[in-house]
Design brief:
The chain is mainly alpha-helical and about 325 residues long. About 65% of the residues lie in helices and about 0% in strands.
Length: about 325
């Protein structure tokens, strides 16, 4: 915890320096002041506690760390396989393996760190980017996963796993049309991969349910209306005198017709008629009767055919694409 407090202290110290730099607008200064207060409260530190100070300021630490990384021009100019020594390759592979081990125990943040170190040593290995994309996806950083997949594909355009993981990240961002495109490309390169096939099917279903002509809430309305069990329950409900009374009352109210509980429901038997009459038909614009009818319908469906209810729930639930059981390469 001490190291965490030291880091928080360094960040707060950096923000204080920025506040006194004179380069910020009044709005930016106010935002930084709020950020400082939040950090001090969250980590229970104060800039008055000099025991947490470290020999180097945060910018100095950052400069020292980034100085060890290759510049973009170095990456672009030294992209041949021979630009990385054998020792560096071995070290990068070791870091990748450590990242894979962290993925197995679901320590995804640590996995990202190992893959990032491997990339820093050998930035021309598509596998490292693709593996880090998988870790990013597990952490919910789908935008980062997309960027890493793009980088992996630019390095190796025939790397099927990069296309598949790109599809997963895009699907998680609800970009199902784009996801389907990448799943198709993954299948071109690996036509026997069942995970890509399944994910492509899910993406295409999502594309259909998001179209204006799709069933409400992703429910297969055509299949529902052709289901004998559903139609039988609907018929029984509509023949229920109490429901008929409700519907008659709502219709008369909606069109400004005559109110009253007895005229429209003809033949309503004793207790049911009394309950309907006591409730009275809803006034124009009042949805309470419709809600009551819907609740009764749902209760009757649950009692008569719980299997159908479960089927409907399964249709409505979001189906998510699968990363499969593949291990990191």
């Amino acid at each position: 915890m001490t190291d965490t407090k030291r880091l928080a202290f360094s960040i707060i110290q950096f923000l204080h320096d920025q506040l006194h730099s004179g380069n910020l607008s009044s709005g930016a200064q106010e935002s930084l002041e709020v950020a400082v207060q939040c950090l001090e409260t969250a980590f229970e530190v104060s800039t008055d506690d000099q025991s947490l100070a470290v020999p180097m300021t945060l910018p100095e630490i950052f400069t020292s760390a980034t100085a060890k990384l290759p510049t973009q021009s170095q990456v672009n100019n030294n992209s041949t396989p021979n630009s990385v020594s054998e020792d560096d390759r071995a070290e990068a592979e070791r870091l990748k393996t450590d990242g894979n081990d962290q993925m197995k125990v679901e320590n995804f943040g640590a996995a990202v760190e190992f893959y990032s170190k491997a990339i820093a040593i050998n930035p021309q290995n598509a596998v490292y980017y693709c593996n880090r994309a998988a870790a990013y996806s597990k952490l919910g950083n789908y935008a980062g996963a997309v960027q890493d997949c793009e980088q992996a594909i630019s390095i190796d355009p025939n790397y099927s796993k990069a296309y598949g993981r790109m599809g997963l990240a895009l699907a998680s961002l609800n970009k199902h049309t784009e996801a389907a495109t990448f799943y198709k490309k993954a299948l071109e390169l690996d036509p026997d991969n069942d995970t890509y096939k399944s994910n492509l099917k899910i993406a295409e279903e999502k594309m259909e349910t998001s179209s204006p002509t799709a069933g409400m809430g992703g429910v297969d309305l055509a299949g529902l209306l052709s289901n004998p069990g559903f139609m039988n329950m609907a018929s029984n409900l509509m023949n229920n005198p109490q429901v008929q009374q409700m519907m008659s009352g709502m219709m008369s109210g909606a069109y400004g017709g005559v109110g009253g509980g007895g005229g429209g429901g003809g033949g309503v038997p004793g207790a049911t008629a009394a309950a309907a009459a006591a409730a009275g038909p809803p006034a124009a614009g009042d949805l309470s009767g419709l809600i009551q009818a819907g609740q009764q319908f749902a209760q009757q469906m649950q009692q008569q055919n719980p299997e159908l209810i479960e089927q409907l729930r399964s249709q409505i639930r979001n189906r998510t694409p699968s990363a499969g059981n593949e291990e990191q390469p």
